[in-house]
Amino acid sequence: LRAVAEAVPVLQLWPRALLPALFKLWEPLIGLFALDDHAVAAMAMEVLATAAALLQGELSAHAIKAAFSPLLRVLRVHGVAPSTPPRAGGAAASTPHSRTQDLVLSALRCLGALCSVRRAVLPEAPRILRVVESLLSARQPERVRCEALALCERLAALEPDLVWLFCVRVAPAEVWRAPPAGLPRLSLENVPSLPASRVDLAASAAVL
Description:
Oligomer: single chain
Structural class: mainly alpha
Shape: globular
Strand content: under 5%
Mean pLDDT: 82
């Protein structure tokens, strides 16, 4: 995996040679995301992220789409927020790294890199944001929350209304029940519920 990671940047100047070789590795790389060895799974994600960031439009939308479900599954399984909020004084930021946390960070970075292929990401943007919303909670380690914010900012550049809707849902109920004069009243009746309390998500919504 390290050899592949180092070869991709070197060979990007010769895409006709690189792309066929990378195509053969793409599915096996995605298959590694589900390994119990989180270090290997994270490395496979970093390889994919490097390829997506460097090759962008050279990659097919079909190849990009194949990576979304395995990456989102990793975030759903391993990105559950702790049941208690971090202690005062920035304890979340100083939380030691773990293999599981590194796996979540790699999955977020990989999704961010895949956002460079707009035609593949746009249809998946709502599904991606629904999964990532829970990682914006103040209960998450600061590294995870910051990486999730960076991904949401990339999604906002592609589909700003999606991220705006998240921010509206986090806003206090009176904001959308009684909007400023001249603006229509918003109905959130059919909008999915938030994955955490408004208090836990408020800081991330303010950044977005």
